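Subject: Sanity check before I submit

Could someone independently write out the structure tokens for this chain? I want to compare against mine line by line before I put it in a report. The sequence has 368 residues.
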Amino acid sequence: MRRNAPLIRDLDVGVLLDTFLAVAVSTILVVRSYLAATGYPQIGSSGSGIHIAHALFGGLLLMVALVVALALLSRAKRWGVAVCGGIGFGLFIDELGKFITQDVNYFFRPTAALIYIIFVAMYLSFRALGRHAGFGRTELLANAVALMGEAAHRPLRVSEWRRVDDLLRRSDPENPLVGPLQAAAAAVEVVPEPEPGRLRRWLLRARDAYASAAESSWFVIVVALVAAALAGVTCLHVLGFSYGLWDLFPEPGHTGLTQVVPTVSAGLTAILVAVGIWQLPRSRLSAYRSFDHALLVNLFITEIFLFAQEEFWAALGFVVTLALLFTVRLGMRVERDQKRSEDARVPPSLRPTAQGAGRLRYGSRRSG
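---
Independent answer below. Compare away.
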């Protein structure tokens, strides 16, 4: 008897939860910037004592995301749910200061650090939930079933068919669902990939630009200089923030952990960057892993203390760190793709027929 899996995860859980988190963080930064630029306007009648907090709009969007997730079967709605839910959560958590203070203080000083800690905890939880190494055969088969369900109302794209094929080949062959699903996949209608959207085109151009630049002789030097600059700026910022070494920073109002922890984390960031620079000529992928770890240390430790003291002015460093993290992971993905050969299997319904060497046949195909 097969043991029931306690949790069946979507294979896209990582990117979907990252989208939710990124949209939530972006929403807070946009809202805070807008309010600061416009003098913190309020929605409500002047003098009436009525103020409609934007947390209410956040709750409304969270409700819409929940209803869509519960009511619709289509897998495409997941991205809309992630975006809508991310905006809603961002609008809600932005007003955390009002919910934890007796005087309903939106400008409560520790709010920025508390929000940052919440997002760090969410990120680490999402990473644990979406760890690909933990996907079992039951989850792979369940995801194949969900993808095949899309064929009930539309043709599958080539990439979707290949994913179904890969999932079924990795599933338990003794499961009675695998054989019928493989036969159904061989007969399902498959269409070529549609023209990529604007975001997809931008990502493809970014990958092409990286691949082109990586072939240049100056690429390693530029990457090393950027990494060294990141470590240097981080160390100078933390030392100035912790000890008030330059006129740009005020004298520190606290001692102890607020000085020691960010100093140690900045030093660890510098060490990881130095290791990455040393690895760069030998293995770019290993170097990128070191850079990735350095950015995560900066993101999850150093930035917390900067947010606690500098509040939302530290958002600039946060955004820069996120941009660098995205760039490093893009490079890691390209390097991984170059190291492994991609599966070139072609759906049966898109293979050339015997009647025409250059023609592609769509629609059903009888197995055998």
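---
OP: Matches mine. For the report I'm noting this point. The two ends are 31 Å apart (CA to CA).
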